[in-house]
Amino acid sequence: MVDRSFADPSLAALYDTLNPWGPGDDFYLGLVMAADPVLDVGCGTGRLLGRARREGHRGRLVGLDPAAAMLVRARAHEPGVEWLLGDLRARDWHREFELAVMTGHAFQVLLCDEELRLALRAVRAALVPGGRFVFETRNPGARAWETWTPDRVREVPDGRGGVVRVWHEVESVAPAGDRVTFTETFDGARWEWPQVDRTTLRFLDTDTLDRFLGEAGFVVVERYGDWERGLLTPACPEIVTVAESAGRRYS
C-alpha cells in the first residue's frame, strides 16, 4: 500500500526496497500490457507503469498520486508516462480509459462510505463503457493485523550502507473489525529519532464491496483469493476484484 507516511522524501526513497516487485505486480502488469489507455490510481513511485512502458506499452499511461515525494521518484525513472499530483476528487475524466487499477492495498485508505462512493463514481466516469477497474484489499477473514506486532522487525538497506528497522503496532480494531488503526515505525541512522506514522485501514468483506461497486455502476466479473487467480476462500490473504463498468464493452 502507498502509505501516507511515504509523503516524506526520506521514506519515499525506501518504498520500493520495503515493497519489492512480486506476484501482485506481475498480475497487474499483464493487465496493463493488454489495455490502452490505463489509469493507475495511487501510483506511488510509478514502477508499474514505468515497467509497462519499458516492456513495450506504447499507449497512454497515466499515474495519479497525492504524494509529491512519490511522484518525484516516478518522474525520475520514467518520463514517458503522465504523472499527475492529486486524487480522484481533483480530476474530471470522462470515458478516457479502458483500464483503471488501484494497487498496493490503496483501496483500504478509503475509510468512510461517502469517500468510497466518490472515488468509485470518479473511476466509473473515467472508464469507457465496459472498461475495467481492478484492485485488491486484504481479506478481513485472514485477520492480517494480528501479525502486525512490534516483535516482527524488518531490516532493509537504507541506501547509505546502513539499515532501516521497520515494525508495526496495532492501536485499535473497530468493534465490527472493519477498521484497524496502527503505527508504522522507521528507525535508522538517517534520522535523529524514529519516524512514526499512524494509519487507519478499512477491511471490507465481499458483500460490502459488491454493494458499493453496484451503486457506482460496476459489475464484478472476476474475483480471486491470491495472485495466482486462486479461488477466494475465508482464509485467503487477498480479495482481488475485477469489476466492469456497466454498458457496451469497448472494442
What does this 3D model show about the protein?
The mean pLDDT is 92. The strands form two sheets. The protein has a seven-stranded mixed sheet, with helices on both faces. The protein has a four-stranded antiparallel sheet with strand order 6-7-8-9, with no helix packed on it. Helices cover 24% and strands 31% of the residues. Helix 3 packs across helix 4. The chain has two domains: 179 residues, Rossmann fold, CATH 3.40.50.150; 61 residues. It is globular, with a radius of gyration of 18 Å. The chain is of the alpha/beta class and 251 residues long.
Helix/strand layout:
Elements: H1 9-12, H2 15-18, H3 23-33, E1 38-41, H4 47-54, E2 61-65, H5 68-77, E3 82-85, E4 97-102, H6 113-126, E5 127-138, E6 154-157, E7 163-173, E8 179-188, E9 195-202, H7 206-215, E10 218-224, E11 238-245
Parallel strand pairs: 1-2, 1-4, 2-3, 4-5
Antiparallel strand pairs: 5-11, 6-7, 7-8, 8-9, 10-11
Helix pairs in contact: 3-4
Number of domain modules: 2
Q: Please write the string of helix (H) and strand (E) elements.
A: HHHEHEHEEHEEEEEHEE
CATH class of the largest domain: Alpha Beta
Cα separation of the termini: 32 Å
In helices, the fraction of residues equals: 10-25%
Could you name the CATH topology of the largest domain? Rossmann fold
- Integer-rounded radius of gyration: 18 Å
CATH architect. name of the largest domain: 3-Layer(aba) Sandwich
CATH superfamily of the largest domain: Vaccinia Virus protein VP39
> Main β-sheet: number of strands, strand sense, barrel status?
7 strands, mixed
pLDDT < 50 runs, ≥5 residues: none
Mean pLDDT, to the nearest integer, reads: 92
The tally of strands reads 11
SS field, number of helical segments = 7
Beta content comes to: 25-35%
Name the assembly state.
single chain
